[in-house]
Known about the structure:
1 helix; mainly beta; two-stranded antiparallel ribbon; globular; 7-stranded antiparallel beta sheet; single chain
Amino acid sequence: MAFNIQNGATITASIGTAGNVSSTTFTEIPELASFTTSGGTSTVIDVVTFNSPYNRKLLGTKSIADIAITVNYLADDEVHQQLVDANENQTRIQLKLEYFQNPTKTEGFYVIYNGYISGDQLAGDKDSVITREFTFAVDQGPVASGLLPIA
């Protein structure tokens, strides 16, 4: 499989039951309103050496930034309500992000995280759609990641 340049129109986000391995069932989050990003950083340790004109850098622990999941909010949607409930009950869930190569969604890559919905916020205006942004706080690193389709 040879990948090409991708756009952000073919992303899906799904939720499942948290665990040490990838959930066996995921439910797609409908009405995504923005591109869902993911990625991590390492703590940078500045090593001062007094007999050297330059400091060294070492890398410490890694962390994954919170993930914003913005939806065009549907108050009666079962999956949107599951996200609201996960926030209110502080329930650990699994989030699967799939970035597809093309609109047929046959090739791409994915990443799965465990974490919590640590907050949500409604937004809107008289001339705009009501959105709800859920903040997903990643617990540790990826549970799984790889290429799609999964063999």
